[in-house]
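> tool_call: predict_assembly(chains=two)
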Amino acid sequence: MKNYKNLFPIFKNNPDLHYLDSTATSLKPQVVLDKMMDYYINYSANIHRGLYPISERATEEYEKVREKTAKFIGAKKSGEIIFTSGATDSINLVANGWGENNLKEGDEIVVSIAEHHSNFVPWQELAKKRKLVFQISDLSFSEKITKNTKLLAINHVSNVLGTINDIKSIIKKARTINPDICVVVDGAQAVAHISVNVTDLDCDFYCFSGHKMYGPTGVGVLYGKVDRLVQMNPVRFGGGMIKTVDLHNSTWADTPEKFEAGTPPIGEVIGLGVAIDFINEIGMENIMVHEKELIEYLFGKLKGIKWINILGLQNLVKLSERIGVVSMYSNDKRVGTSHDMADILGRKFNVAVRAGHHCAMPLHTKFGIKTGTVRASLGIYNDKNDIDELIKGLKHFYKIFNS
Amino acid sequence: MDDIYKEIILEHYQNPNHRGKIEAERNVGNANKRSSNVSLRSKVYVAGEVNMTCGDSLKIFAKIINDKIVDAKFEGGGCAISMAAVDMLLDKVIGMKLSDVKKMSGAEIEKMMGVELTPSRKKCAYLGLEVLKKL
């Protein structure tokens, strides 16, 4: 197995770190940090309308990332890419900018039970505000869709189950029921692990964060089909997004600037561009092969531990239809909860996992899990040793409660 | 043996002394709310707290006469640290004045448990005290 750890400086500073929390945020390769530092020490000017060389350079670098991002996710043009502060911000922009402007009382919207709160709560709130009919679909995603369903919000990859949803088929099916349905896809857990082509998927909006794909925090992406972006109103107002301002009225700049009020996270966008290069250089195929080998290894090991249950495993799925995310809990009442498990893994084994509901309480409730699960998730830097340490830690945890 | 998951903590988690509830004799208090009409007679108070992000939920029943806690029980679920802490805490506070319990600090909880906790685990350990302070 190829070792990618040396590309990530955090392992130089924390050589014993077993980082299994990539679903929360991925670690950052040196090349991303170098490029951001390069911006800050060599041309850290504001973009647009700076008529001096370093501003022109910053603008050029910033806009280059828009093109790169469009290409990365198979958008038809760079104008379909809006930079936001993250996937949550992207989804809120759709809810408040598109939803507010295009949904009216009595319209149905369908959200899946497996959504991260970021693709659940904005719709729940919008539904209350605009008196929409808020429908929750089960894991099949499409059974609640009717010809009155105006919007469907679904994830490409579940941040809890790790399952890759067949978005293309779901969207196709939804469009046979209502051709004009607006489909918002949360791709935050997909972009670093599988190839994404928004044009092929035929989604209306696609949202993701930079920091879950080896890029910096503070930057995210909203892809929107041109027709949908035309229907969307800006929700943040200020510099950079206007065309004209007089004492009484203002007019807006064209898309995408219209949706990027204020100084954007320039250094972070430039960092995101390198994260895309980083993924492309390793190659998504190689990433998938690497992670698949680890997923199989991880599931093989977990299967041998009788007191561990894996959330949603019976509903799923071949290992080939999932990324390296596994949420587990103990079926032995004597042992502690997910919090105890994660604490012991972290303090005693330097294994970084997450405990709780992973911002998906409706899904945990559906499975009857009250005290949360422990989620281990993989990235390109992981190796079998990380998984061995996890397993060692789990066994130690069990022993503490059964000695 | 883990430095936090000491025998005594595991014992309180797995075999708690105070699990259960106390039926109200007269005025029934609501969770999260101290019942009104404070009197000097024996009365059962109930207070609760949920921390849904980590899955802890806790309800404490306390029988109080003249500011003195004469009995207390708890219901709920959560991590070993939060559940052991509340059981140990009830051991300690039964017989104490509620007004004195309300003056207790988080540091006293750690002292009582005989452990030093990381910031995230302090939150677990202090849950019981937080609820008692609502009584």
